Amino acid sequence: MHDDPQQLERLARLVEQSLARPLSRRELIRRGLALGLSLPAISAALAACGVEPPASGGPPLSRWRPTPPPSIPQAATPAPLSGNFQPVPSPAQPAAPTPAPSPTPSQAVRFAVIGDYGMEGEAAAAVAAMVASWAPDFIVTTGDNNYPDGAAETIDRNVGQYYSAFISPYRGAFGPGAAENRFWPVLGNHDWVVGYPEPYLSYFSLPNNGRYYSVERGPVAIFALDSMPGEPDGWTSDSPQAQWLQGALAASTAPWKIVVLHHAPFSSGHWGPSDWMQWPFAAWGARLVLAGHDHIYERIHRDGIVYVVNGLGGGARYAPGFSPAEGSQIFFNADHGAMLVEADEHSLRARFITRAEQLVDEFAL
Questions:
Q1: Which of 129, 141, 190, 271 is 20 to 30 A removed from 158 (C-alpha atoms)?
Q2: CA torsion, points 295, 302, 350, 123, in degrees to nearest 10?
């Protein structure tokens, strides 16, 4: 797809107007996406109007910040829980270690986590604009990338329309894509509905067999799983897929080993726990488990590690289930949002932030 010159002109006028009535960079990105422009075109327009430096012609921008960006309020107390229950108390977690001296840029990464986001519309666009404003090194998803049924006809509108600037090779209609892949999804049940997830596997170029794989960036190793019953290599803790994970975790020397899957092993949401995915992640060496499926945000402490349910990327929000999960620390379903994770060799810090820039949760490992 070619960006419409008239749309580019409209965005340029918005930028010029913002000089007199300031609009945030995120709001300008959101409006550009609403006009149907690609992220590269939006960035070029912002650069031409002096809102941000051009993407080329100088050293790459580093947006690593060991402290929160000014646009994100740092709340002393988490936002009130939504839903009709309070989480079950759990033993206090040990305090995070004192941060080491500031790392060099090569030792630090910042990445976004989005879940259950693959539904074209206002909520998905708002979350995507916020994520783009963070300028993450890469994006991780917790599945359901392509509603309603994982079809080839919808995947580019649901994914590429918002995230093409992170995907390589990108073969869709929303801009040129990225120079290298910086988008790491996992399969969800809606990506499988057509049967074998061929549209997903054809759209993304992923390591291993594409259904489950690992990738390492800086101090972070991501282990992406296929939690869908029907996975050819199994979905139980003694399956070939699980044996692959156990071996890959053991072989990795990354400080932060993060397992990502769709069906949450533990959840207080509508669907509740997915017991077939309650693998011994902690015993195998994982430090953090990220999941989706329930369209909520929840942080759970179990087995000495943190489990997160992150499914508020764009799909309809879900009500709480019948009972809270043991070890639940916070439950939220009042708005859509995404996680921002910053990690160096010594510490990992994660925040869940709504599209209205409300800081809902923050934790450190």
A1: 271
A2: 0
Cβ atoms of 286 and 257 closer than 8 Å: yes
Helix/strand/coil for 32: helix
Burial 130-143 (b: 16+ CB within 10 A, else e): bbbbbebbbbbbbb
Query: CATH assignment of 105-364?
Result: 3.60.21.10
- If one counts every other C-beta atom within 10 angstroms of the C-beta of residue 303, the result is 16
Report how far residue 182's alpha carbon sits from residue 185's, in angstroms, rounded to the nearest whole number: 10
At 148-170, the pLDDT tens digits run 999 999 999 999 999 999 999 99
Listed in order, strand segments (DSSP E) in 131-171 are: 138-141
Length of the chain: 365
Range scoring the smallest mean pLDDT among 55-59, 217-221, 293-297: 55-59
Of all helices (H) and strands (E), which one includes residue 29?
A: helix 25-34
Q: Reading across the β-sheet that carries 328-332, which strands appear in turn?
A: 213-217, 220-224, 256-263, 288-292, 305-310, 297-302, 328-332
Strand order in the sheet with 359-364: 183-184, 138-141, 109-114, 337-343, 348-354, 359-364
For residue 346, report the phi and psi dihedrals to the nearest 5 degrees: -110, -25
Q: Are 361 and 307 in contact (CB under 8 A)?
A: no
- Which single residue is written with the structure tokens 């439950």? 331
Highest average pLDDT, of 40-49, 61-70, 90-99, 165-174, comes from: 165-174
